[in-house]
Design a protein that fits this description.
- Helices cover 10% and strands 56% of the residues.
- By secondary structure, it is mainly beta.
- The chain has a single domain, classed as Porin (Beta Barrel).
- Strands 1, 2, 3, 4, 5, 6, 7, 8, 9 and 10 form a ten-stranded antiparallel beta sheet that branches.
- The radius of gyration is 19 Å and the shape is elongated.
- It starts with a helix and ends with a strand.
């Protein structure tokens, strides 16, 4: 939890500095820092279990800070609460249900390219720290969450479409997948569990 506390403190200072230096929101001059906040939904699945499909709906939310190298290129740091996992698809012909909940405090570090029109493309890595894990089969806790690893490393690919004349608002779409295994698979033919998600987020830049 120390890295989460350190990142939170770092964000506080960086966002404050970004707000101080942002000036008039109509000012189009180059700024070293830009800050914002994102909130949206994760559509998740876990490779290595016996269930397919991005059926697990979860929340993703947190602040964003950009370090701008020039008008086109920047590095960004985010501090997210990100709900992942897996869920069986509702089926009236199947009474069996499955739910796998994996909640993370996540720190994506991304490289961004802004074409200075309305598109921002991004790619990078994310470190996740598991803060909640449990597995239910037919509503019964299986203790499956106890074998989930505390740390996760993921790759991130995405893009943002900026909205409005001042471009404060954005619609972000993101794909994320685990590089490291998050736990053992119940399938003996699979090396380990892998998180995958599609995120749809709204972003506001101050």
């Amino acid at each position: 939890m120390r890295i989460i506390l350190f990142t939170t403190i770092l964000f506080t200072f960086m966002v404050a500095d970004a707000q101080i230096n942002a000036g008039d929101p109509k000012d189009n001059e180059f700024h070293l820092f830009d800050a914002g906040f994102s909130v949206g939904a994760n559509f998740s699945q876990v490779d290595g279990d016996y269930y397919a499909g991005f059926n697990k709906l979860g929340i993703t939310a947190g602040p964003i800070i950009h370090l701008n190298f020039n008008p086109n290129w920047s590095a960004s740091l985010e501090l997210l609460y990100s709900q992942k996992g897996a869920k069986s698809k509702p089926d009236p012909n199947n009474v069996n249900t499955y739910l796998f909940v994996l909640d993370y405090a996540e720190v994506p570090v991304l490289i961004n390219y802004n074409d200075k029109n309305r598109l921002l493309f991004q790619a990078g890595l994310a470190y996740g720290r598991n803060i909640k894990a449990f597995e239910e089969v037919n509503g019964i806790d299986t203790n499956g969450g106890e074998v989930i690893k505390s740390d996760e490393l993921s790759y991130v690919l995405g893009g943002t479409f900026l909205i409005g004349e001042m471009k404060h608002w954005g619609a972000n779409f993101r794909y994320e997948g685990s590089i490291t295994k998050v736990g053992p698979s119940p399938n003996p033919k699979v090396v380990g569990l892998v998180n995958r998600l599609i995120a749809v987020r709204g972003i506001y830049y101050f």
